[in-house]
Amino acid sequence: MGSDKRIRFAVIGAGLIGPRHAQTVMENPNTELVAIVDPLESNATLARDLDIAHYQSLHVPLAKQLASAGVHVLVEKPVSVDITSGKNLVRHVSATGVRALTVVSSGTLGTIVAVNGLWALRKPDEYFQHPAAWRQTEAGGVVLINMVHKVDLLRFLFGPITSVHAEKTLSQRGFEADEGAALTLRFRSGVVGSFVLADTVALSVPHMRIMCVNCQPRLDSAGTKEMLHISRGSEAMSITGMSHHMQLG
């Protein structure tokens, strides 16, 4: 792809994750970083394609404004802080050509019964201080910032989630943001699951255990990637490159 064909990006929000996106764009020969837009800077230039990594509560209005102007948008997680505004955004941009892929529906894993997971660490006090004090609000909780990555992985492996029950952990900071939860999940495929997460506790090794009738899956973590190993009798396979987000987010 020639330089005149490169996809042009602007990163909106130069907070904790924004610079990582900017670096990724700069390292890719097929993309060009044309601007970093942040409220602490006076000048900003919008590019044709933008990666929105701004305050969670601004994702929907910014994306709608840019989409209305004919600008392609890549919205950071979470898309919105509530279901209603998220659905409203989807209707607004009328995304097309999306292909849903699940490993369970293909039979790759055999017969899955259940999945269990854990994500836990302690976020430092400075994580919630200016200019990121918004993380103290309901938009900055561990479910929206961190668990969303696991939801992405769970949906990829087991298909759409049809029901969720969650109980919040005891508050240690006194902020509006949730600090942890215990969740039970049911997937359309029939798989059930449970997940516990918290950002106020000592670091624990994250894991995701898959319970399978006729296979032996194992999910290994290495750096920022996960590898799923599957064995059934004399057959074996691995699925690599799945994101593993143990960082603060």
UniProtKB/TrEMBL annotation:
Coiled coil regions in record: none
Origin superkingdom: Eukaryota
Domain Gfo/Idh/MocA-like oxidoreductase N-terminal: residue ranges: 7-58
GO molecular function per UniProt: nucleotide binding
Family annotation (InterPro entries): Gfo/Idh/MocA-like_OxRdtase_N (IPR000683), Gfo/Idh/MocA_Oxidoreductases (IPR051450), GFO_IDH_MocA-like_dom (IPR055170), NAD(P)-bd_dom_sf (IPR036291)
GFO/IDH/MocA-like oxidoreductase domain segment(s): 102-211
Membership in a protein family: Belongs to the Gfo/Idh/MocA family.
Name assigned to this protein: Gfo/Idh/MocA-like oxidoreductase N-terminal domain-containing protein
Source species: Verticillium longisporum
Taxonomic lineage: Eukaryota, Fungi, Dikarya, Ascomycota, Pezizomycotina
